[in-house]
Design brief:
about 500 residues, alpha/beta, Rossmann fold, 2 domains, six-stranded parallel beta sheet, five-stranded parallel beta sheet, 19 helices, 18 strands
Length: about 500
């Protein structure tokens, strides 16, 4: 028996796909498995705690707690954006207040921060394990994990750690398990753990606390632990997840049709630097599995999680509607500039595509090996708009090849195409610590910690992070055309809820 746990805290809008894939694969091979999505359970536990309402906002949030939870789960909430935002902010207020009563940690519906502990310092993670009772989720997970262990008697507990915002609570859980159930082996995996292990500074800092660290997909290592001698065949299953509990205007089915990126050529790409190989499910097989999941679960939305949905997958979806509205991230290709193809995608259920324009300067795109032209980007945005497919456009500022003048070219491009853009993600460039391209730049520590995934660097053109941030805040965000786009962003849940609000 294996107990798998998804620790808090990430956006509680949908079930964790990594655990769903692990569970589905283990179940297919007859391995006993119990699931705890401690993210949604822990968030709801804290939201429902009694608390002192010593100000008007908190009093209103307490009074409307259940109605706000119900409203966020109601598909009709998309019809009243102001009411939706009020529900999100009120619940966020309650979560923050609940954390304050337990210590210095700061919680939102999308993040966990502790001013005293850093998730990129292994010594702080070990301290979180030692001081597990100080974690704001302790009163929840001490009861929940104990109940699951005593009921199921697992030989192993697997912790799936994918985001920095989960790290401190993940280690608090590990510390609790080791203190209370010394005979149980703890397996630690997930995409964040993979990035740590693949980094140049990995020195096995958790030996003595964690029994096994898994880098990369966890299905085969868990099957090996269970004594199953078979070649892994990945499968998703959401049988054990509380699909109606997640905070979204309708249930969301997350699905990944690949590991890695089919393009895999972009400069400074973390996946490329880590040596992640592209491993896709055959497109037709993926479409059939998604269709079967849709038939069983009847989701309101499918979320394709691929680093970039492949042209083959998009083509199959255009010909074989999966049975529910869907969205995902994809590269801009010539096929997406074809209006007929975009119409076929829309007819198959595509409601939104996340697309990486990255820069409005061709020189920057060429230097970063993006493999696209601005002319193509214009055609793609136009074809998607004409087909009625929403666009969530990603822009990146401060890369080594960008100057302030080129950032203004991105501003100009965005303004010109504003009528074709529904949502924007504005990111400041981070240099992956293991990027081979970093070797030609002067680097310096970015975050103080042996587990940091990024390094600081001296920008060759002097376009450093403070200047980039000032430009974004003082100029880019304030342009009326761009401010109008940004005003439509679903607060805190951002792209996870954006498909419900495509205009």
């Amino acid at each position: 028996m294996i107990l798998l746990i998804n620790p808090p805290l990430v956006k509680p809008s949908e079930p964790p796909p990594g655990l769903a894939r692990l569970y589905g694969t283990l179940k297919r091979e007859g391995v006993g498995c119990e699931i705890i999505d401690a993210n949604i359970e822990g968030v709801l536990y804290l939201l429902e705690k009694g608390m002192e309402a010593n100000d008007n906002w908190t009093a209103r949030a307490v009074r409307n707690r259940q109605s706000n939870l119900d409203y966020l789960r109601n598909p009709q909430c998309r019809l009243n954006v102001d009411r939706y935002k009020r529900a999100v902010f009120d619940l966020n207020r309650l979560l923050g207040k609940a954390a304050q009563s337990a210590g210095p940690a700061r919680l939102t519906l999308s993040n966990y921060q502790d001013p005293a502990l850093s998730p990129v310092r292994s010594s702080d993670l070990l301290r979180a394990a030692e001081k597990y009772a100080e974690n704001p989720f302790h009163s929840y997970f001490s009861q929940r994990i104990s109940r699951a262990i005593e009921l199921n008697s697992p030989g192993f507990v697997g912790i799936s750690l994918n985001f920095l915002s989960q790290a401190l609570t993940a280690f608090s859980m590990i510390g609790f398990i080791k203190a209370r159930y010394a005979g149980i082996r703890v397996v630690l995996g997930g995409s964040l753990v993979t990035s740590w292990v693949q980094g140049p500074g990995w020195k096995r800092p958790f030996d003595g606390l964690v029994d096994m660290v898994v880098s990369g997909p966890g299905e085969q290592p868990l099957l090996d632990l269970a004594g199953i001698d078979t070649k892994v065949k990945r499968r998703f299953s959401y049988d054990m997840f509380p699909m109606s509990d997640y905070l979204s205007p309708g249930s969301i089915l997350p699905y990944s049709a690949s590991i890695g990126c089919w393009w895999n050529r972009c400069a400074f790409c973390p996946e490329k630097a880590e040596g992640t190989l592209y491993d896709p499910v055959p497109p037709m097989e993926a479409v059939l599995e998604v269709s079967q999941l849709c038939s069983a679960l009847r989701p309101s939305l499918i979320h394709f999680l691929d680093s970039a949905m492949s042209p083959g997958l998009l083509s199959r979806l255009s010909q074989n509607p999966p049975g529910a509205p869907w969205y995902g991230f994809t590269r801009m290709t010539r096929r997406l500039a074809d209006e007929d193809f975009c119409q076929a995608l829309r007819a198959s259920g595509c409601v939104m595509l996340k697309v990486g324009v990255e820069s409005g300067d061709q020189w920057v795109l060429d230097c970063e090996c993006k493999g696209m032209s601005l002319g193509l980007a214009s055609k793609v945005l136009g074809a998607l708009k004409k087909a009625g497919i929403g666009t969530y456009v990603y822009l990146l500022f401060g890369s080594p090849s960008e100057t302030e003048a080129q950032a203004r070219n991105t501003l100009d491009f965005t303004v010109r195409h504003a009528p074709l853009i529904d949502f924007l993600n504005l990111a400041v460039f981070n240099m992956p610590v293991n990027s081979p391209e970093a070797k030609r730049l002067a680097t310096a520590p970015h975050y103080e910690g042996d587990l940091s995934l990024y390094t600081g660097f001296r920008h060759p053109g002097g376009w450093d992070r403070p200047k980039v941030r000032r430009f974004l805040e003082a100029e880019f965000r304030k342009h009326p055309a761009i401010a109008s786009i940004l005003s439509h962003e679903p607060p805190l849940f951002t792209s996870n809820h954006a498909p419900f609000f495509v205009r």
